[in-house]
Amino acid sequence: MTVRLSKPWRPFDHATVATLTGHLGVYELGNTAGDVLYIGAAGGRSRFGLKGQLMDRLAADLDGACCFRVEVNMAYHSRRIELLEIYLNDHGQLPIYNTDVDESRLGRVRPG
Amino acid sequence: MDLALTDEQRLIIDQVRRFVREEIIPLEDDLDPDADELPGEQFERLVAIVKDMGLYGLDTPPEYGGPDIDLVTRSLIAIECSQHRAGLYAPCYYTFGGARQAQLFEATEEQKQKYLYPMLRGEKRVFFGLSEPSGGSDPARAIQTRAVRDGDDWILNGTKLWISGADRADYGLLFARTGGPGRSGVTAFIVETDWPGFNIARIVHTLRSAKYATEIHIDNLRVPHANILGSEGGGFAIANDRLSRQRIPYAAECIGVAVKANEMAVAYSKIRETFGAALASRQGIQWMLVENEIDIRMMRWLVLDAAFRADQGESFRTESAIAKLQCAELASKVIDRSMQIHGGLGVAKDLPLERWFREMRIRRIGEGPSEVQKHVIARDILGAGLR
Description:
The structure holds two protein chains of two kinds. Chain A is an alpha+beta fold.
């Protein structure tokens, strides 16, 4: 099992996001260089799952976000924490738009 | 055994019940259904309330500042604290002080200063690293992580699996083989998670939403000899003590979830109509509710019996194994029936039943699977010759 999110990047636009399903899972937003800008999850309270979450992110018009990738995952809660902790270990800080996460409450995952 | 509650126990139970219903459950309306922690400010506010109640640090002995409560009262509190969505694995979101590594109370004074007291003050997080890919229920034989003496240090190599909270911990206990096969070859080490050679390889995603597990890779981890907890070769006794004692409140938590699920099923069966009559009027539903009630009473009796024996200083190994076995099995059935009564709503994330159903499944495996509990009970019935 791969620990890092290895799904291919897709264009972050309405047409592509509209093709997503309403499943629960995790997602990442990236820029043209492939840097991760945000790590999020579509959880049990999301009305339309991954599709709804990414539509909301599109509406937020995040500067620089031009691509996304998703992973359908019912264990979205621990999977998002894992992705955040890997990113934190790799970069020493969280993605720039993850201001919704308290870094001091995260641990470390070093997948090697 | 007298199971009538004392006035003090009634007071404590009422207090905790109100806390859960008035402070914890309303917060869950705004949390993700799989959440396992509260926002920082809410957590601090609730911890202050628990401290005012005099119940912070439930598993801390009174000589270290914990509340002076017996295991019966501790079990009654556990039954109350788990009666909310996250309650099975994150009872009251750890506002009562969270799980404590009781083994550290056996540490040397120097070790206590460095590791025990910061943990008790809530400044540091700790993990318990026993299980390995080769198994967890039989540590005497399953532990393959090796520790080799190198001057004043030990060098550890191996893999740990199913270790809760290690990614966020500051330090913890690692059990490794320092001698030959069997019990006397296992030693407990206190290790710090930022030491070179200690790596969290991944989070192991399971049915459980809270308290997720991790996989630890130990690669030439250098540990000072002074960080042995207890004696060299004495790790099995340390691990085993935890496994026996913690079974009782662990079992009690299952009851709380079952009580809440049944409460929901009773209420729903009265308001939900099918074919012109309330579900509660159907014999099929009534029998499910009756079975729930009997199972809950049985679980409660077994847990309090085991706790009472422990409080009296009597042997309680068989009783705690029976309580753990039956609570995990019966609470699963109570939740399953309650889910069935709720129909489609029972499996939706709108209600906590689906989370309890998933997480309760782990209870039949965690802290010693049902079959291991039966093995413990059989051994006590048939004698040591069975080993």
